[in-house]
Amino acid sequence: MKCCCLLTNCFPYLSCRTSDCSFQIGPFFIVDEPFTIDNGLMTPTMKVRRDRVMSKYQEQIANLFK
Fold this sequence. Notes:
Chloroplast_AMP-bd_Enzymes, long-chain fatty acid [acyl-carrier-protein] ligase activity, Long-chain-fatty-acid--CoA ligase
């Protein structure tokens, strides 16, 4: 919970600091499960398997953009 509160409190600051930039920060979603090779979310070279992450968290990601 401590991490969520920290990020929630920092979001307005980050949003303000990047308002003139060509990129935006957020929305974000924090998961309890680490991305590892064993659970199939990382490759052996420690790269995120984006297709598997997207399929696993598809519903949560869709809810971020509603």
